[in-house]
Amino acid sequence: MGVSRSSPEKGISVVTVDFPPVNALPVTGWSALAEAVRAAGRDPEVRCVVLAAEGRGFNAGVDIKEIQAHGQRALIGANQGCADAFAAVYECETPVVAAVQGFCLGGGIGLVGNADAVVASEDAVFGLPELDRGALGAATHLARLVPQHLMRALYYTGRTATAAELHRHGSVWRVVPGAELRAAALELAREIAAKDGRLLRMAKAAINGIDPVDVRRSYRFEQGFTFEAGLSGLAGRVRDTFGKDGKDGEDGEDGEEGV
To answer: Pfam families, alphabetically (predicted)?
Structure first.
């Protein structure tokens, strides 16, 4: 359980997340993930990083129960941890390949949207159920996976898109049976890692440099609204009614913050 690193092949580092039962990460988990990705990127022997997860889903976002139990302190920690982990993936000195199975929700979108390439299993689904959790965020990253109007529709409804749909949009490199996911991710990583290491790092820096959106600043802007919803009590009310709250705060007591 936790975050681990392995080196199955020369030039490739695999960072694996394992937080049963659904890979909803606590604050310490997001921080550990950020550090593991940064460490892999700093290693001069690494030319490609594979971001993977154990279990039936890639990532279910933050640990809501932790936030309910510890309130503002956990909310601040989760938001900072997510921002750090997403940035670590984007800023990793080497290309990052995400291997996605099952559900990729909330914070999972932040990770995958900032990766350089995505390989997914046939059962993978991608979405942001944030509004049902009384939160806002990661539209920045969903917009890197699907076209603008689809991103908005998915965001407002909380619906998910399948790996096959993302493949058609060009944001998923390959869709494979679940049993073949890790092998397919390593195959792509192996092809990348065959290139000159120094030139790969230059290429990653060059591509990030021409990105039209500053993903770190954009995401932090979104997070401001999550804080507002949490501090006003709106987040707790919406979460307690499963995302259905049309009375603008009438009825019900202020709840705990959520992301």
So the answer is: ECH_1
